Automatic annotation (TrEMBL):
Residues 25-94 form the Tyrosine specific protein phosphatases domain. One of its GO terms (cellular component) is cytoplasm. Keywords: Hydrolase, Protein phosphatase. GO terms for molecular function: phosphoprotein phosphatase activity. SUPFAM superfamilies: (Phosphotyrosine protein) phosphatases II (SSF52799). The keyword Transferase does not apply. This is Uncharacterized protein. Transmembrane segments: none annotated.
Length: 151
């Protein structure tokens, strides 16, 4: 963390790529605690990244999970209402789900589902997409059970 004394600005630089393998979760508590510290002292916080879609959105979501006492699902929806283009990458979603589980005795409000050649958080899907994936998973599961029974 850098401290700019001329303007009394705290600056936390998180140098990570927006990649599934990036360990943003290493900064979850630090960033959330810093935001809360400034809020409690009447300050403001600006959270940003290159596009404002994945890294910064994930840190804001985690802040609401930790200090806003919201579920991960509700935190995502709150941030998305304020900035509709947010799209945390699947790796960040997995890390946020793990964080929520750590706070809630292993319970999560968001589930990762297969989509194309990756995964997607169920909260990011439209009802139609969610239904399609659930039907596809059911068919795939039924088909796998039939194949296993023949072996």
């Amino acid at each position: 963390m850098f401290r700019c004394t001329r303007f009394t600005v705290d600056y936390l630089k998180v140098s990570l790529e927006d990649a599934e393998c990036s360990q943003l979760d290493e900064y979850f508590d630090l960033a959330a605690d810093l935001i809360e510290h400034h809020r409690m002292n009447g300050g403001k916080t600006l959270v940003h990244c290159a596009a404002g879609r994945s890294r910064s959105a994930s840190l804001c979501i985690i802040y609401l999970v930790k200090y806003g006492k919201q579920s991960l699902r509700d935190s995502f929806l709150t941030i998305r209402r304020a900035r509709p283009v947010i799209a945390p990458n699947p790796g960040f979603w997995r890390q946020m789900i793990k964080f929520e589980k750590g706070l809630n005795n292993g319970k999560a409000t968001v589930e990762m589902l297969p989509r194309f050649q990756s995964e997607v958080a169920d909260v990011c899907l439209t009802p139609r997409e969610l239904e399609y994936i659930k039907r596809w998973l059911q068919k795939t599961n039924d088909s796998a059970k039939k194949r296993a029974a023949r072996i």
